[in-house]
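Here's my example:
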Amino acid sequence: MAPVVVLSHPQLGENIGAAARAMANFGLAELRLVAPRDGWPNGRAQAMAAGAAGIVDAATLFATTAEALADLTRVYATTARERGITKEVLTPAEAAQRLRSAEVGGERTAILFGNERAGLDNDEISLCDAVITIPTAQFASLNLGQAVLLNAYEWFRAADTTPAARTEHGALHRRPTRAELFQLFAHLEDELEASGFLYPPEKHDAMARAIRATIHRARLTYQEVQTLRGMIVALAKGKHRVRKDC
């Protein structure tokens, strides 16, 4: 199962709602709250969660952190600073990989977050297997919602199969067929030959191949092929020619 998100003594309902929204975006669904300062339920949490209000509705309440973690087999604590406790310190990405492996093994896991003012105390950290620290350029301490977001994202990304890069193609932006590319080659080469560009004759074939290679590298869409052919027609026949004053 996916990791449980445990918020220890959260102060603001808005941050609880932001955490729930972050969870929903990245496939986490179970939220546990330890003694929220402003009580529970909290209307501000509901409002901030927006489409993730279901996570807020289903959140379970605990009096102590130990009770919230009691049925779990692996728990990582998030903290921004060293506490003088001997604990392995993980990046969110490494923690996500380990949580994924634990999930495959049937373990019940969680990520524990402290409150907005002071974070987790040493006793709470001592209940956990390891510590997660988010590397930052300047301010080590992050907003609670941001911290949940970053850890949830890394957990999602650890199993995500989205290609690193892709091109969106609509009906006119599909890749052209070979025949459509060949028509562009023939059209362009005919006009270049008529204009005297493919000269001298002994260099004709090599120059044509170089032009084709350039077009291939551009990875044109069908619409772009058609646009280029229209440009060739306009240049060759003077279509829509506009005289420019020097």
About this structure: The chain has a mean pLDDT of 91. The two ends are 72 Å apart (CA to CA). Residues 4-157 form a domain with the Alpha/beta knot fold (CATH 3.40.1280.10). The first strand starts at residue 4 and ends at 8.
